[in-house]
Amino acid sequence: MRLSAKTKWPSVFLLLSIPLISHFLSAGIIEKESVSPLKSKEGQPPSGTKKKESELWKRIPFQNFKSDSVDLKYKIACGNNILLLVNFPAETEKRKHKPWKWDAVKQIYVEGGDREAELYVVIAEFAADAGQDSAPSNMDIWIWRAARTDPSGFADDAYANAKSLSSSSGESESVEISQDEGVSCWFSRYFSSFAGEEIPRFYQRTPEGSSADVAANGRWEAGVWAIEFSRKLDTGHKDDISLKDGKTKYIFFSLGPPSRKSLVFSKFIRIPDIGK
Questions:
Q1: Of 197, 86, 100, 189, nearest to 142 (Cα)?
Q2: Which residues of the chain have pLDDT under 50?
Q3: Cα distance between residue 221 and residue 217, in whole Å
Q4: Cβ neighbours for 36, distance < 8 A, ≥ 6 positions apart
Q5: How far apart are CA 53 and CA 140, in angstroms?
Q6: Torsion angle, CA of 262/24/34/81, rounded to 10 degrees?
Q7: What percent of the residues of the chain are helix, what percent strand, and what percent coil, each to the nearest 5?
Q8: Rounded distance, CA 128 to CA 131, Å?
């Protein structure tokens, strides 16, 4: 059965130019200060920042997580922000997503079949007496996408709750995932006249509001994706889970939209105590 998430992403028809931003903490002063360097034109952070990030991650061991049949590795660090590094195998980058392809017969653009690489990070809260098959009461969902979000330096920021897991009817396993308030970091554009045999369908813009909370960047090399996330422990937004309230939080990873059956207590990993 094909799994999908019901999302509410906006679609507009203006192409904007934006700076590419990275929000990762400086390793040398992780407890006191964060840095927000501009990326270079090639999409990589300045060499000095990249070196500091590498030094940070060298001090933290990888932890293992199995997402369906795929083995992922992750690291978590904490300062003013929570930092997350996730590695997962992928034979190719998959940097395209449903590009427009010109149909010479119909003289219109039709949706291509390419699908981008995706990573869903679910930060969850459970009831104090949660059993092995209990569902989260609240979920903060960060969605990194190779084509739609990665060029902007952000991830889609979304949320779901216990009701989202039980609202689907029939045999559907999809989860009702809603975008945080504000403006997302991407939009789609349609072309009514010929502009090339194949052209991108999705473009980037500067996110706003609660939708701009999660910075994310991905790098693919030698069959492995490395995705880095950064978010304030407490964003102050009502659609985000605070990581500074002293309550125990859990984390889950998925390379596609998570199903209702997969979002149970026994499949989550406890996040180390932070922000207390």
A1: 86
A2: 1-49
A3: 14
A4: 21, 22, 23
A5: 25
A6: 0
A7: 10, 35, 55
A8: 9
Q: How many other β-carbons are positioned within 10 Å of the β-carbon of residue 200?
A: 16
HSE at residue 54, side-chain half, CA atoms within 13 A, is 7
- List the structure tokens of 84: 């997350």
User: In the block, which residue shows the tokens 């994310």?
Assistant: 216
Two structure tokens written together for 88: 């997962």
Q: What is the pTM of this model?
A: 0.80
- pLDDT tens digit sequence for 179-237: 999 999 999 999 999 999 999 999 999 999 999 999 999 999 999 999 999 999 999 99
Question: Reading across the β-sheet that carries 250-254, which strands appear in turn?
Answer: 178-179, 156-161, 138-145, 118-125, 250-254, 269-270
Residues 154 and 204 sit within 8 Å (Cβ to Cβ)? no
CA distance 115 to 92: 11
Residues near 106 by Cβ (< 8 Å), separated by ≥ 6? none
CA distance 258 to 119: 10
- Residue identified by tokens 């997350």 is 84
**Residue whose tokens read 């092995």:** 132
Q: Can you give the pLDDT at residue 266?
A: 94
* C-beta of residue 116 within 8 angstroms of C-beta of residue 94: yes
Question: Could you give all domains of the chain from N- to C-terminal order, each with its CATH number?
Answer: 5-270 (2.60.40)
Cα(65)–Cα(96) distance, rounded to whole angstroms?
26
The whole-angstrom separation of Cα 154 and Cα 60 is: 23
Closest by CA position to 96, among listed 73, 112, 72, 79: 112
